Amino acid sequence: MNAVDVLKANEGAVVRAGLTLVALGAELVAGRIDDALARADAASRKYPEWTALEEAAIAVRAETREEEQMPDIERAIMRLVWATVKGAIHEAVT
Length: 94
Known about the structure:
The chain has helices at about 5-10, 10-30, 35-45, 50-65, 70-94. By secondary structure, the protein is mainly α.
């Protein structure tokens, strides 16, 4: 199944993830960095199995040096977005 088919088959999760990204972006634009971090932390605590998956993915990226070459700000935002969106996706598909 290609990416388009996966997204279409999981439209509810895609919509929820998109709305979560909008809320995260609004917090960051408003300078509420602590709120954005709290949202990501809450999602990580709610779904610990996803944290283990994320840690495995980070280890693989580090092994391939992809993440090392990424600027710190890009890496920080990537982790913030993933931590926040993964909770929304998990809630939408379960």
